[in-house]
Amino acid sequence: MGLTFVTTNMGKANEVRSLLRALGIEIDVRAVKLTEIQSDSLEEISMRSCEEAYGVLGEPVFVEDAGLFIERLNGFPGPYSSYVYRTIGNAGILKLMAGEENRVAYFKSCIAYKLSGKPVKMFSGVCVGRISHEPRGSGGFGFDPIFMPEEGDGRTFAEMEIEEKNAISHRGKAVRAFAEWLKLTR
Ligand code: IMP
Atom 10, ligand 1: which residue's CA is nearest? Predict the structure, then answer.
């Protein structure tokens, strides 16, 4: 059975492909543009995107939605991360955090998977860390240059190889939970 991942973010597609390939699962990536609904819940956003993708392609699909939640900003940008990244970007986040000592933040990833005739199945993963004082590194994508995971050694995600990021990231955790479930049900 084919496994189709719908995303227009190739950074995300590369991470998910590499994670699943290491577990013996191959995916097809389809760049279908979906309408991202506005909601305070990542779960609701990914569930709705998944239903829309399933409607467009008519085959089993999964999508993934992620957000960066900054403690000092009461969880902002959270589910609005994509809009905030496009508008103020990493420089804007660093400006909002200027002079702040509490730099704790976490990334959350939600995967939604739909098979015909079944309700959408959800998997999630969280990675806690801190917002750096300046952008560092050129790997990864999005907020990677300003996020230092707690499980790491002080480097930002953008200073890590894809395998290092995948081993500890929110997306890595969500994908591994998904793969475990797939193996049990296939
Ligand atoms: P979405 O899941 O594509 O809606 O992502 C929301 C926003 O968070 C986008 O601007 C992404 O670039 C950013 N983002 C999502 N996942 C990550 C990640 O693993 N590292 C850095 N930024 C991310």
Answer: 82
pLDDT tens track for 57-74: 999 999 999 999 999 999
Give residue ranges with CB within 6 A of ligand 1.
9, 65-68, 81-82, 85, 107, 140-144, 157, 169, 171
- 1: three-class secondary structure by DSSP: coil
28 is catalytic: no
Q: What is the CATH number of the domain that holds 42?
A: 3.90.950.10
* Mean pLDDT, rounded, of the chain: 95
Give the structural domain span for 50.
Answer: 2-185
Among 10, 85, 132, 156, say which to mutate for ligand 1: greatest number of ligand atoms within 8 Å of CB.
85
Q: List beta partners, residue 5.
A: 29, 62
The Å distance, Cα 144 to ligand 1 centre, comes to: 9
Distance CA 27, CA 76 (A): 32
Query: Number of folded domains in the chain?
Result: 1
Q: What is the pLDDT of residue 1?
A: 58
C-alpha dist (Å) from residue 56 to 43, 99, 123, 185 = 20, 47, 22, 25
